[in-house]
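Chapter summary example.
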Amino acid sequence: QVQLVESGGGEVQAGDSLRLSCAASGRTFSAIAMAWFRQAPGKDREFVAAITWSNGITSYADSVKGRFTVSRDNAQNTGYLEVNSLKPEDTAVYYCAGGGSVYYRSPKYFDVWGRGTQVTVSS
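The structure predicted for these 123 residues follows.
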């Protein structure tokens, strides 16, 4: 069974940056795409960014385009989300997930999930 483990979250000030990691372990991770979602208290889980494992095609939510960068290291089976110019509204639990397409935006299309890492941004 594949496991995803996120790390790198923390409490930061507005304008700061963080690098979130998502390490995959277990049997061969065969998902085509790795995505990042986030969920703030009282809100639905929302798509943030995604990347294909094979050729690095990326996709971003409009709210983070230009501030966040998704990447992957196939040799390490690890995905990354660089989050820059953080705003208080970026405060959420950030999850990584494995699924079938970099263009899918709904959580229902991703069948492997990590437990999340908390990002808290104060003004």
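To summarize the output: The chain has no helices and eleven strands.
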